[in-house]
Amino acid sequence: MVSAERGQTKFQINLRRYLRESGVDRDLTRIICEIANASKYIINAIRTGDLGVAGTSNLYGEQQLALDVLSDRIITKRLVHSGVVANIASEEVADVTPVTYPTNGRYSVAFDPLDGSSLVDVNLAVGTIVSIYEGDDLLQPGRNQVAALYVLYGPRTTMVVSTGNGVHEFAMNLLMEFDLVQENLKLEGPARVYAPGGTRTKYSSGTEKFVQHLENNGTKLRYSGGFVPDINHVLVKRGGVFMYPHLSDLPNGKLRVLYELNPMAYLIEQAGGAASTGRGRILDLQPEKIDDRAPVFIGSKSEIEQLEQFIAEED
Ligand code: FDP
User: Fold this and answer.
1) Does ligand 1 have an atom closer than 6 angstroms to the CB of 115?
2) How far is CA 49 from CA 41, 78, 172, in A?
3) pTM metric for this prediction
4) Cβ–Cβ < 8 Å for 127, 151
5) Could you tell me the distance, in angstroms and rounded to a whole number, from the CA of residue 15 to the centre of ligand 1?
6) Euclidean distance between the first and final Cα of the chain, in Å?
7) In this model, does residue 111 exceed pLDDT 90?
8) Partners of 133 in the β-ladder
9) Three-state secondary structure call for residue 54
10) Does 225 contact ligand 1 (Cβ within 6 A)?
C-alpha cells in the first residue's frame, strides 16, 4: 500500500495508480479518472474562458454562466464516454439524463459542475462536486454513495476523494495529472475556523447560540462564499464548521442535497466529522426530488453535536 503525508511524498503516486493499489473497482476508478480528465478542461475554461452569461437559466431559476454550461458539457461527455454510467444528474440540467448507449452502466453520478461560479468574476476559488452511486437510482439516501469527490480550482487545482476508505488529497501537476498529496485526512483537532452562510439576522435562536459558542471559543470566521473552498479549509486544517442553516425566509436553507450536501457529508464523515440538518444526519435524508434542499451544519463532530443540542433546546 502506498502512503503519503503532505510534503513527505518521496515519489509521485498518481490518482489512477493510487486507486488501483487501494483495490477500488475498475469501473469506479474509470469514473473518477474521467472527472480528473474533465477538470483539465474546466480549469482551462476558468482561466481563460468567457465570463459572460449563457442566456439560459437552470431549474432553480438562476442565470447560467457560459462557464456553468461548458463545465456541465465537459463532465457529461466524459461520463458518457466512460461506458460505465447508467444515469447522470447535473445541477445545471432539469432532469436525470439516462445514458442509453452503452446500456450496461453500473454506476450513477450526480454532480455540480461548477459550484460557486458566481465567484469566478471576482477571481475567487470554485469547484466541481461529484457523488457516485451503484446502480441506476439517484434518489436514495447519501449513506449509499460508493464514492464522492470534489475538485477545487484555487491557486492550485486539487482533488479530494473518498471511495469509502478514508479521504485523500491529490494535486494537479505540470502535466495536468493528479498526484497524491496526503492520505487519510482527519478532522482531529479543535474547530479552528467556521464558515456561516446566509444572513445572520435570519438565523434561528439555536443557530445564533451556536455562532456565539464558536466565537466565544476563539473559532475564526473564514467564509469565501464557495462551498468547495470553505469545506476544503475545514478538512485540510483538520477542524472547523461550515453551515448554511435554515433561515427565517428559507426554511430548507440554500444548498442541494444531491449535488452538494450528500457528497460533502460523505467526505466529512469519512474524515471522522459529522454532517447534520440540525435535527438529523444528512446522509439519512431520503431525497424526493433531484432538487431537494436542506439546511446543513458540517465539520468537526463535537461541534455538530453541540449544534444539535442548541437546536433541540432553542428552536
Ligand atoms: P453560488 O450560489 O455562488 O453557486 O451552492 C451555491 C453556493 O454558491 C455555494 O458554493 C456557497 O457556499 C453558497 O452558494 C453561497 O451562498 P450565499 O451567497 O448566500 O452566501
Assistant:
1) yes
2) 10, 20, 19
3) 0.94
4) yes
5) 29
6) 48
7) yes
8) 108
9) strand
10) yes
